[in-house]
Structure formats: structure tokens, C-alpha cells
Amino acid sequence: METPKHIHMIAISGVGMAALAGLLKAAGHYVVGSDKAIFPPMSTLLEQAGILCKNGFDPSHIDPKTDLVIIGNAVSRDNPEVLAATERGLPYYSLPQALSLFFLTERMPLVVVGTHGKTTTTSQLAFLLAFAGWDPSVMVGGIMKNFNTNSRLGKGAHFVIEGDEYNSAFFDQGAKFLHYRPHHAILTSIELDHCDIYPDFSSIQNAFRQFVQLIPKYGFLVAHHDPAVIGVAKEAACPWVTYGLHPECDWQATNIQFGEEGTRFDLVYKRQTIGSVKSPLIGQHNVKNTLANIALTYHLGVGLPAILEGVRCFAGVARRQEVVKVVRDIIIMDDFAHHPTAITETMQALRLRYPKRRLWAVFEPRSASSRRNVFQKEFAIAFQNADCTVLADLFAPEKVPVEQRLHPEEVIAEVNASGKRGFFIPTSDEIIAFLAKELTPGDLVCIMSSGGFGGIYTKLADALQND
Question: Which terminal residue of the chain has fewer beta carbons within 10 Å of its beta carbon, N or C?
């Protein structure tokens, strides 16, 4: 694939597709795409890369010079551009197929997989290697603050990838990470998620099992010390180590201290303390993410001093406990959490970092799993560390069968029954009006959604400033 190609990407403004587009452009290919909803930050990244994004889907968008087409996983088989591409006999690929084809055959893929923590762990891993001078390539499902982008094409031997377990495309129904040719990997967690394609825990566990079996004997696996993860890791043909807070872990964190400036802990390897870690990240989940990356980079041969300094300098990822605005000493925070476990971890971390602030949790059930009642009870528990909880109505409820839908009102009833304050407020505009009256100086409002949530972040800041 050395000859530059003319590539058309259908649904180019998705996080993964925009990242791949940037990589392809950096590799010397001509890239153009189309999408219906084109908004920052992806529209900004595409524009900065000089990649044209055409509005809407139309057969005329596919240039006669096009060599191949890449189709996003949200695209249906009856999309006008898909139909046009197939009628013209153009080769087409899913995102992971294209990534593997263009970038992974001649590099050493380091793949981070798991239900939780993938984006932060992948971003930190890439930064640690870059900080050590290894110049890795990376593709991740978020904006890495140290690089201010979601992908980079390095000259080094390694390619760091966030390995998503979601389906690849309508014509490529397997998990994305099954295409990623892992040499080495990190497995953070296994829980039921993506309930639209994984009907039960065993089905999603089997997907991770298939991934682990792809790691060659000469590879290496870093696995969280968790029964579900260890059960899968045992099937790896390669050597593997565990990490976590349990004394039996190969890599363990002890003497953990949290504060407004971040986290400190002692680094223990095979029962011996070998260093002291300082990180700007907060929360036990980020301690574990950092341990995983220390374990893998140490195995790869990065010196421990460089690893520890890299951890200290890692700035994190956009939309992960990201402070959007501070108005009248009210902190407005954006977070991507949408699974009960992720919400629980986010609330615990914020309680540790801001113990004196009143904590508001505002949540939009938007992902395929969070809109379903499979987590009805778990959501009520997830908000227990918040002082006040606000739930919006489901995003696009018509896409979920009635009998499977989450009932936000019932979640809020459980929150109130537990002695905390909870409110069901259907729309983002109604939530803004409510919060503008309720928030007081010293509050922290963490707004959680896997999407745009009606632009609530900036609108709330404006409402508070004008109040």
C-alpha cells in the first residue's frame, strides 16, 4: 500500500474515523469524506489536517478518481454512498480493516482493550512512549491533551491503539479489536456493555477471549487482577502479569494519597517497592490505568525514571473529568461516563478531589446500554456519591424497544429513597433552567453523556454568568 491512494470515507466525522483520516493524510494519501452531523472537535481536527468533509450523503460525493472507500460502523447498508460504491465495484473496508491494512502490518501494535479505561490508558501509554523518545503512532477515541489530537503518525516501531469491542461495520460484524494484530496488550476490565450486540456477559467475555488468543507467544499481556479478566488471560499463549490494588498483583499500588493536585502512591513490583508515583489524575481507576502502563512500558524496556516522569507530565484526555468552565466558583465539568461502573468511579474520584464541594451529577442516558433497563438498579447505586442527581430523558428512545427501555423516573425514585436528592428533568434546556436557580458558589456539577447533550456545557455556563 505504498502508492498514495484516493480514499473516500463515509461518516468521516466520528471520533475513530476522523482519527484514521488524519493518519491516512499524514501517510501521504488523498483523503476526503462525508457526514451528516459535523461538529467540533472532530470538524476542527479534519479542517486542521486539510481534509474536506462534504455535508450529507450523496453518490456525487464519491469522486471518479476514488480508489477505495472506508465505511464507518454507524453507516447502514442502504446509505446512498454505500450503494454507489458497491455499484461502481469500489473496494470498501471497515475502519479496523483499513487501519490494519495501511498501518499495522509493518509496526508493533500495542492494543488496550477492556470495558472501562481504554481511552485514558491508551493515551497515557502513547504519551509515555513519546516522552521516552520512542515516537509511537497512536489512534484513540478521545482528544489527548498532550498532543491535542486523537491520532499521530510517528516514526517509531510501535502503534498504540484503543481496541474497541464494538462491531466494525454492517458487513464486518466482529469486534473491532480482532483486526488489530496485537503484539502486546493491556486488558483493563470485562463487564456487560453494548447490550445491543452482546446479549449477555458470556458473549462479551467470549469476544475478549478471542482477542487474547490473537496475542502471539512472543507477545505480552498486562491484565487487571479481576476474576473475569484473569479467567480470560489464562487462555493467552504469551506471558502475562497482573496489576491492581490486591497484594497478590505482580504490579501493585500502595499508600495511595489523593488530593486536589492529583495522586501519589508507592509502586510495588513483585512485593518490592521500586518507586514513588505522582500523577495529576485522580481516582482508584486511574491508579490502575497508570499501573497497567507502567507494567507494559517497563516490559518494553523504557527506563523507570523516564516512565515516572512521563506519568507526572501526562495531562489526560478531553471529556474525562474535564473542567469546562468555572463561573462564580461553580465548577462545570464534562465527563464521558455512561456505564454504571464508570459513573461510580467518576463520582468517587470527584469526591476525593473536591471533598468540600457539593457534588451534582447530571446524566443523559444516551449509549445503547445506558438506554436499556439492564442497568436499572445499578444506575441508582452509581449516583450514591453525588449530593444531588439529575437525570434527563433517554436520547432517541424510539431506537430501543419499549420493554427494554430504562426508566429514569424510577432511578430517581431510588436515589431519593436512599436519602439523596434526585430529579428527573427530561430536556437539556429544562435542566439548564433548573440548575441556574439551584447551583450556588462552591458547587461542582459533573455532566455525563456519551454525546453532545444539546450543548448543555456552554449553555449552562452562559446561564450562570447571566444570572
Answer: C
Digit-coded pLDDT (tens) for 362-406: 999 998 888 988 888 889 899 998 999 999 999 989 988 999 999
Query: Going from the N-terminus, what domains does the chain have, and what CATH number goes with each?
Result: 6-97 (3.40.50.720), 107-313 (3.40.1190.10), 322-466 (3.90.190.20)
What gap in Å lies between CA 60 and CA 80, rounded to an integer? Answer: 10
pLDDT given for residue 48 in this prediction: 87
pLDDT one-digit tens code per residue, 407-422 = 999 999 999 999 999 9
Q: 100 by DSSP, 3-state: which?
A: helix
| Angle in degrees, CA 419, 337, 291, rounded to 5 | 110
DSSP 284-316: HHHHHHHHHHHHHHHHHT--HHHHHHHHHH---
- What 3-state class would DSSP assign to 77? coil
Side chain identity, residue 218: Y
| Alpha carbon distances (Å) from 194 to 175, 204, 378, 463 | 11, 9, 15, 35
One-letter identity of residue 419: G
Query: pLDDT tens, 157-202?
Result: 999 999 988 888 999 988 999 999 999 999 999 987 776 777 788 8
